[in-house]
Amino acid sequence: MPRFTVHIRDEWLAVPCRDTKNTIQWLGYEALKRYIKNKPDNGGIKAVKDTRFVVRRCQSLGLLDADDTIEDVLEDNDFVELGNVKRIFTLTYDLFLFMHILFISAAIEGDSMSPEFIPCEPGVSPLTAAYREPTEYISLDGNSLSSTDLVNLGRGLYKIKLTAEAEIKVVQSRELLDTIVKENKVVYGITTGFGKFARTVIPVSKLDWSHVPNSNLMVLLLNRELQENLVRSHSAGVGNPLSPERTRMLLALRINVLAKGHSGISLETLQAMIQAFNASCLSFVPEKGTVGASGDLAPLSHLALGLMGEGKMWSPKSGWADAKYVLEAHGLRPISLKPKEGLALINGTQMITSLGAEAVERAQAIARQADIVAALTLEVLKGTTKAFDSDIHLLRPHPGQIEVAQRFRSLLDSDHHPSQIAESHRFCDRVQDAYTMRCCPQVHGIANDTINFVQNIINTEINSATDNPMVFAERGETISGGNFHGEYPAKALDFLSIAVHELASISERRVERLCNPSLSELPAFLVNEGGLNSGFMIAHCTAAALVSENKVLCHPSSVDSLSTSAATEDHVSMGGWAARKALRVVEHVEQVLAIELLAACQGIEFLRPLRTTTPLEKVYELVRSVVKPWIKDRFMSPDIEAAHRLLIEQKVWDVAKPYIDKYQMEYIPESRPISPTAFSLESPASPRKRVRVE
């Protein structure tokens, strides 16, 4: 007989269904009857038949009609949930030997939000909305994952599998731990408590029941008590959950670190984690609660808790529901922890590092595109390219500075990409431009160099064993150390925030020059009929607000430390906040540059019919494919978001990159336009001696 398990408020109720021709409304009523039976006040429900509720599918968000029959609307592994709800039901469908699990969420009219319910965020990312199960794999060995790979895993582009070498190392380290347990040796986190309780030895009876006849069940239940207590007690984070993409990155990175074979995880448990990742079963991980030493304990504990079948979990099919039911829906079992495995799952810098990987990848993308946006602004403001002369930058040979100057030349070099705008002011008497244009190689350059520095640290951290104690199978011993301390990624990500912020700081000043008629030859705020229209007036204010907010966010979190765990963990990195605010800073930089990109393209409208260089015209055409010119005022936020999306997806870089690559690869001679300050090396004729021309 088909059976449904219905989650009402804080209870799970079994509802048998003899006939699947029954309706969704019938199922809700049957569940409510069982719910109120054991409630002294009927759970606040006056009459079942008068209770109103709605249900909808998780994937399509389509509402289900109360008169729909179960067999017509619920299919194998189908998921539905409540939209705009205050209280939920979650139903699972189990038919005979096949586990057909369906989640139905419904609201009881008048209820308040269940504290256990995590609603689908209204701003579901395009990646999550368009998620399709990947078919390609990335092989993990703990040594070769890059920040780019990790971000792609977060985006759901790949599944995971272990290399054969990694499997061997994992098995060897586990065998050593099993020997330690059998011999009752005292080892931190295996036969002792944690943190302040490191000197408290756990009774053997709690760790090994192998001497008890027919004790397989007791071994299963009691060997894991210490480790499960650790995970449960450390699951103390607060705040919104990480997005599915970021949780996927966190899980992938923890798997990669465990694959190094120095944490003592069993191959069975590690494979269970991989199966959960490949099914995109993702634990509820609050974003706040880590101090970055001993590792990211709280978020990683929440990650492990879901894998244990406790707490909440998310998948593309189910949305948020109880972890055990999400795992069941995908044919997975909760992991059963062996000695040291709880510690192996939660001890490390993976939240700092995974968020840091996204931050540095996005920073790298926006830094490259910042050069393109700034070059477009320089054209609109009729600036000169003389400041990008290679000889200037060879005298101060920072790699980033040289690279940015070369990128500007490749975009603006009029002899190779003729610009009518540049030709229109070639013989003007302007000697030099404002710093916001002239000093782009110096300001953008250090941002590029810092990003590269941070990326190297993040990539090292991605492939580092950050557990404690470390298991050395080849030496036959475990050693306690401090690799879990997050100071490296914390400091690096503070540096990243400070460096990438300058891209927004200087961009906002260029927006000011575009909007201010006293600093340009353009209409005030880049719009006709000023007064009637305000144009980019408030868009510039938004850019200024974001830059100001970044100034506060750039205060380094890693300069702070608070002693925790009764002074056992007496110095911490605060790297979790460093990573989270780095992402916010990068996002603000993207948004400010999106505003500048729109302003520069609008400025070109007032210079027509003159055209800019070929690569910059391609950028202009890209922007105009999603945002039309401003003839008069209109709702501007969607346009800013559209430009922001172009930058996030690196489409601005994609259209300009072929021209940049061609310029750099073909060694095209550098053009050096004449400027008012140019002079001849020949001695000028004396003003007292006039040369007579025959």
Would you mind describing this structure in some detail?
With 694 residues, this protein is mainly α. It folds into three domains: 3-89, Phosphatidylinositol 3-kinase Catalytic Subunit, Chain A, domain 1 (Ubiquitin-like (UB roll)), CATH 3.10.20; 134-347, Fumarase/aspartase (N-terminal domain) (Fumarase C, Chain B, domain 1, Orthogonal Bundle), CATH 1.10.275.10; 357-464 and 486-561 and 579-666, Up-down Bundle (Fumarase C, Chain A, domain 2). 45% of the residues lie in helices and 8% in strands. It is built from 24 helices and 15 strands. It has helices at 24-37, 70-73, 126-129, 147-154, 164-182, 216-222, 225-234, 244-258, 267-278, 297-307, 323-329, 341-346, 350-380, 390-394, 399-412, 420-424, 435-438, 440-462, 487-515, 537-553, 575-605, 614-624, 637-648, 651-665, and strands at residues 3-8, 11-16, 55-57, 63-64, 80-81, 91-94, 137-140, 159-162, 238-241, 282-283, 286-288, 312-315, 319-322, 470-472, 477-479. The strands form six sheets. A three-stranded antiparallel β-sheet has the order 2-1-6, covered by helices on one side. Strands 4-3-5 form a three-stranded antiparallel β-sheet, with no helix packed on it. The chain has a three-stranded antiparallel β-sheet with strand order 10-12-13. A hairpin with a 2-residue loop joins strand 1 (3-8) and strand 2. Helix 8 packs across helix 13 (350-380), helix 19 (487-515) packs antiparallel against helix 20 (537-553) and helix 20 runs antiparallel to helix 21 (575-605). The relative contact order is 0.09. Mean pLDDT is 84; it is low at 81-107, 111-123, 207-222 and 683-694.
